Amino acid sequence: MSLAAPSRSRVSDLLWVRLCQEAEKILRSEPVLGGFVYASILAQPSLEAALLHRLAERLGTAAGGLSEQLLQKVVAGDNSFGHAVRLDLLAFLDRDPATSSALTPFLYFKGFQALQTHRIAHALWKAGRRDFALHLQDRASEVFQVDIHPAVPIGLGIFVDHATGISVGETATIGDNVSLLQGVVLGPSENDRAGRHPRIGNGVMIGAGARILGGITVGRCSRVGAGSVVVEDVPPNVTVAGIPARIVGNAGCAEPSRVMDQMFYDVGL
């Protein structure tokens, strides 16, 4: 079974063309990976199909019944999925200095793959297929060490770097163009079922190991320092750090999630 025709043709979808070109380059430089790269990219009809093939390969288990065809059925006809995938992939290219090719995060980075698995699980959750959504969450947690509840809405252009140990609770929300590093926890601090987890605004950067706890808001284009514990609302365009976190200056730039500068020298201490 193939996916419904994507909104862009293979010729006009420049990101898909780039992936195919990079795959062909690997075929020439690393023949030992030829079968893997061909099956993962060059044998696929679209970027969406290639991604679902890779996710099924990573997540599938005989007992769980996950398959490429099953994942295809979930996203078939949903053009918003392909749009989100492309913006996330561009975010990796834009923000990660270790990423020189689009194929690298697409095939190998668990942060990118865990994020796309969550997008599928979230679609299932919204459609009322909650057991299937929770199964995908469980598989992603086991395979990628990223645990995001399928109820969590996540915006576009998200960068998840390294990813190990990320945990996001059920009532959290994450806006557009957010960057998260490994070990980030968006957790609860109380038993208010309606909104016990944080709300992360657009353009926020959250450093490695940060804990943001409770039904608080982190304002747009703010930075959370690595290892910080945030238990109060964070205004827009500031940097917070410490245990408990406090404001240590401004955000240092207009788009901290894109610049990915985690130093404090530019915040006006």
Automatic annotation (TrEMBL):
Any one GO molecular function term: serine O-acetyltransferase activity
Gene3D superfamilies documented for this protein: Hexapeptide repeat proteins, serine acetyltransferase, domain 1
One annotated Gene Ontology cellular component of this protein: cytoplasm
Ranges for domain Serine acetyltransferase N-terminal: 15-117
Pfam annotation, one family: SATase_N
Protein keywords: Acyltransferase, Amino-acid biosynthesis, Repeat, Transferase
Its EC number(s): 2.3.1.30
InterPro entries hit by this protein: Hexapep, Hexapep_transf_CS, LbH_SAT, Ser_AcTrfase_N, Ser_AcTrfase_N_sf, Serine_acetyltransferase, Trimer_LpxA-like_sf
Reactions mediated catalytically: L-serine + acetyl-CoA = O-acetyl-L-serine + CoA
Pathway: Amino-acid biosynthesis; L-cysteine biosynthesis; L-cysteine from L-serine: step 1/2
Keyword check for Repeat: yes
Gene Ontology terms: biological process: cysteine biosynthetic process from serine
PANTHER family, per the entry: SERINE ACETYLTRANSFERASE
Listed name of the protein: Serine acetyltransferase
